[in-house]
Amino acid sequence: MSHERFTTSREVYHRIRWDERFDPREFVIGYDTHDEVMAEMPFNDFVPDGEIPWHRVWYFKRRQQVVWDRRERLDLLAPSPPAP
Questions:
Q1: pLDDT category, 84, cuts 50, 70, 90?
Q2: Which of 23, 26, 32, 35, by CA, is between 20 and 30 Å from 68?
């Protein structure tokens, strides 16, 4: 099993918010409601450090595609490594 550092939900949030390549209106955030039920909210409705803590954010979707998933360790938004 790889022990490489995985991008946090906070880092992904800020990447979507501030990277000009992304339109935040295209994203939703999936989070744990504490009832072991997942819910989604539009990206722009999420309040950083608000009612939903970062550790309850489990995925980000762009349109219908999951682009970051904590359980699957999926990060399709990660910057590409520089070419050698």
A1: low
A2: 35
- What is the 3-class SS of the chain, one letter each residue? CCCCCCCCHHHHHHHHHHCCCCCHHHEEEEEECCCCCEEEEEHHHCCCCCCCCHHHEEEEEECCEEEEECCCCEECCCCCCCCC
Closest CA to 54 of 13, 4, 3: 13
Q: pTM of the full predicted structure?
A: 0.87
Q: What is the mean pLDDT of residues 2-19?
A: 89
Phi–psi pair at 66, nearest 5 degrees: -70, 125
